[in-house]
Specification:
Layout: E1 3-10, H1 16-29, E2 33-37, H2 46-50, E3 54-60, H3 66-77, E4 81-85, H4 86-90, H5 97-103, E5 105-109, E6 116-122, E7 136-140, E8 144-147, E9 152-159, E10 172-182, E11 185-190, H6 198-201, H7 203-217, H8 219-225, H9 231-237
Parallel strand pairs: 1-2, 1-3, 3-4, 4-11
Antiparallel strand pairs: 5-8, 6-7, 6-9, 9-10, 10-11
Length: 240
C-alpha cells in the first residue's frame, strides 16, 4: 500500500482543511494510506519521510525550519513524490528559496483577485496527466508566477486578462500545470485551487490534480526498480 503525507496550515483563506480532505479522500479511494498533520513537526523525521511515496503540502505563507526543508529535499531526491496546488505549495514559505527550487515556482500576483474568468489551455504532450483533456474555463484567481525554466509545462493561461501594471508588457502564456524532477523524485504542481469548490466548478481541474498526485507517487517505485541512487546528487550537495 502506498503511503502519503499531507501537512496543512498557514493562511485559512485557501481552505487548507477542505482542500486537504478532498485530496486525502481521492488518494484513499486509490488505495493509499494517508496521514494528515496540522503542523510541520513531522518533517523533522527524515526516516518517516523516506518511507513515504508522496508528500502533499497544503500550507500557504508562513515559515519553515530550514532543517525541515533539507529533509524534504533529501526524501524527494530519493524518489518520494511531491504534489500540490495553488498557494498551498507555491506560495508557501516565501523566504525559503530551496523550497522554491524543489517546487519549481513562486506566486507573485493574481491581478483582479478572485472570480476572474480565464481559460486553461492544455498543451498536447505525451504526459498521461493531461491526456484527453480539452481547454477549460475557470472562475478563480489567475496566478502570475515566477517559474523554473526546467519544468515541463502541461497547461497555461494567457495574460493579461485584467488590467494592471503588467499590461505594458507583451501577452504571455503563464504556466498553470507543470511537472519536474528533483533528484529521483517527481514533482507536480497546479495553480488551480484557490478555494476547494474550484474542483467542483471545473471538473477537469480535479482530474488533472488526481492524475498529478498519482504520477508523482509512482516515482519512488520506479527509482527502486531501476536501481537509481542519490549518490550523484549528494556529492554536489555537499559543496553548499
Amino acid at each position: 500500500m502506498k503511503k502519503a503525507l499531507i501537512f496543512r496550515g498557514g493562511w485559512d483563506g485557501h481552505e487548507p482543511l477542505l482542500v486537504s480532505e478532498r485530496f486525502a479522500g481521492i488518494l484513499r479511494g486509490e488505495g493509499f494510506d494517508v496521514d494528515i498533520h496540522d503542523d510541520q513537526d513531522i518533517l523533522g523525521n527524515l526516516d518517516y519521510l523516506m518511507g513515504l511515496d508522496l508528500i502533499i503540502p497544503c500550507w500557504t505563507g508562513g515559515e519553515i525550519n530550514g532543517d525541515y526543508t533539507k529533509n524534504v529535499a533529501k526524501a524527494v531526491g530519493a524518489g518520494v513524490g511531491m504534489a500540490g496546488c495553488h498557494g498551498g505549495m507555491c506560495d508557501a514559505f516565501r523566504k525559503d528559496t530551496e523550497w522554491q527550487f524543489i517546487t519549481g515556482g513562486q506566486w507573485v500576483s493574481h491581478p483582479g483577485g478572485d472570480g476572474v474568468e480565464y481559460t486553461v489551455n492544455v498543451i498536447r504532450s505525451s504526459s498521461p496527466i493531461v491526456e484527453g483533456i480539452e481547454d477549460f474555463l475557470v472562475w478563480s484567481e489567475q496566478y502570475y508566477l515566477h517559474v523554473d525554466p526546467a519544468v515541463e509545462v502541461l497547461a497555461t493561461t494567457r495574460f493579461p486578462v485584467v488590467n494592471y501594471y503588467h499590461i505594458s508588457n507583451k501577452p504571455v502564456d503563464m504556466p498553470v500545470v507543470w511537472t519536474k524532477y528533483w533528484g529521483n523524485g517527481r514533482v507536480f504542481y497546479s495553480s488551480l485551487g484557490h478555494h476547494d469548490d474550484v474542483f467542483d466548478k471545473s471538473p477537469s481541474a480535479q482530474i488533472i490534480m488526481t492524475r498529478g498526485m498519482l504520477w508523482a507517487a509512482e516515482g519512488k517505485e520506479y527509482a527502486v526498480k531501476n536501481g537509481l541512487t542519490t549518490e550523484r546528487f549528494e556529492s554536489k550537495a555537499k559543496m553548499y
